[in-house]
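As the next step, I selected for study a record pairing a protein sequence with its C-alpha cells, which the following lines show:
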Amino acid sequence: MRYPAFIEIDTDGTASGWFPDVDGCIFAGKDFDEACADAASAIRAHFEALVENELKIPAPKPMQEHIIANAAEYTGGQWAVINVDRNQVS
C-alpha cells in the first residue's frame, strides 16, 4: 500500500512530517531524504504496534483527497508517498 506523507522543511534544512491517514505517526530527519527513510521506519513500527494491540490498520487515501478536504493544512511543505508492504507487518 502507498501512504501519502506530508513533510515540512525547516529553515536549517531539517525535515519532519506526518501521515494524514495514520493518527499519531510522525517522523523526522536531517533533510528530506532522511525524513523519508524515517517515515518508512515509523509507519512500519506504528502498524506493528496496531497489530499487537489488535487495532485496525488504516487504509490510505489519495493525497488529492487530503488537499481538497483541508488545503490550508498542507502548505509550506511537500508530499512523499511511502510504500508499505502490509504483509510484512506481523
User: Anything to note?
Assistant: The mean pLDDT is 95.
